[in-house]
Amino acid sequence: MNIKSLLLGSAAALIAVSGARAADAVTVAEPEPAEYVKICDVYGSGYFYIPGTETCLRIGGYIRYDIGVGDPGSFDGAKSGDHEDGGEQGTFYKHARFTLKTWTGQETELGTLKTYTETRFNFANHGSYAVQDGTDGAGNPTFAPNAAGNSGVSLNFAWIQLGGLRVGKDESAFNTFIGYAGNVIQDTLVPYGDFDTNVVQYYFDAGNGFSAVVSLEEGSGVVGTIDSYVPHVVGGLKWTQGWGAITGVVAYDSNYEEVAGKVRLDVNVNDAISLFIMGGYGTDDNLSDGTWHVPAGDRGFYKQWGENWAVWGGGTYKFNEKTSFNIQASYDESKDFGLAANVAYNVVPGFTVTAEVDWAHTDHSTFGNWTGIEGSKKNAVGGLLRFQRSF
């Protein structure tokens, strides 16, 4: 063995030992299995599986900003008190809202298990009128400023549904099953029923266009809340076809033992034009409550319109995929009349700007007797500009 061979052998031995020590010092961990959020398209777009479950979840909502001007009776204007002299004056009606919605769905052996929630956060000038807060030295009324501020958080929906059975916080089936009064913003210039209530409901769908609902309801507010263990009862039938639908609902008001009903016809004239007409009738022998636009003795939780009968009608015309025109007219036996029309423009997907004009007329002699309401005007005209980003 010569010197050269000895050196080469020694170098090889050192490399081998160093490699062995390096291998002993490095430990490579096994990668953890990644759990990705999976899309759930069973219930429509926007749903995803909650990781580790078979429940599909969708989160959405909207941000809305309203600017209104005009008379308070149109629901678009506002009144306030002048800071200098306390006099009543007109001002903008402003309303900002953030609404958070959630939907869940899961298939079970008893049918689809669904939930829905909607919570609204509001910032606005409070109400649409000024409140009298005293008098000046000459005995003239003075009014408090109608200052803007946080105007409440409301839980509008929070229900659970398994198959056809629904329980929780909803809006009355007297309105949801038959449909609201058109695609205008101010659709209650002549009111067609109250909304917020706890419910126990059952929906039935025959699969051939016929559907039905039975709803036990508690109502809300002084007029609506039951005063015993007897609930309000709402029942409805609907027949839906490609041309439109025919719907009827009947409600029993357990507080006053009165009955109200509505029937509705929806017609899809073509891809651009859809029309509806809805009529309501209610008994009022025992009713004893009222609001500023419906006189005392006429109002229950369901029959909100004046005297016995009322009618609503209107429609939508789609100019194109971005722009639509909506109109609604309403009238009741008390000679209240409402007219609302708007143009809605979809600026980009998810962002819509709507401009609406409203006119409300009333012949009620009691209209305006509430402090701060502008009762001298039988005709109230206003306009509203709405910006809404939905997601």
TrEMBL record:
Main location: membrane
Signal peptide start-end: 1-22
Keyword Oxidoreductase in annotation: no
One Pfam family named in its UniProt record: Porin_2
Location of the protein in the cell: Cell outer membrane
Main function: Forms passive diffusion pores that allow small molecular weight hydrophilic materials across the outer membrane.
Family stated for the protein in its record: Belongs to the alphaproteobacteria porin family.
Domain remark text: Consists of 16-stranded beta-barrel sheets, with large surface-exposed loops, that form a transmembrane pore at the center of each barrel. The pore is partially ocluded by a peptide loop that folds into the pore lumen.
Protein name per UniProt: Porin
Taxonomic source organism: Mesorhizobium montanum
